[in-house]
Amino acid sequence: MKRFLYIFLFVIFLSPISALGGSMDHVVINEVQVGQTGSGNANNEYIVLFNPTGSDIDLSSIGIKLHIRNSSGTDNNKTLTFINKTVFANGFFLIAPNNDYGLSIGADATYSVSSGNKLVDNGGVYISVTKTKDIDVIDKVGWGTQPEGGFEGAPYAPTVPVGQSIIRKTDGVDTDNNRNDFTISGQDTGGGDTDVPKDNSSIDGVYINELMPDPESPKSDITDEWIELYNDTGSRVDLSGAILRDSVGVVHEYAISDGTFIEPKNYIVFYSSATKITLNNSGDTVELLDRSKNVVDQTPDYEKSSAGQTFALFPDGWQWTKRPTPLSANILEEDIADVKTVKASSAASKKKAAGTKNSKSKAKSSSSVKGASAKKTGGSAFPADTAFDAASSKKPLDSKTLGTILLVISVVVAAGYIINREKLHEIYQQKN
Question: What is the dihedral of CA 105, 106, 111, 115, to 10 degrees?
Answer without folding.
Answer: 30
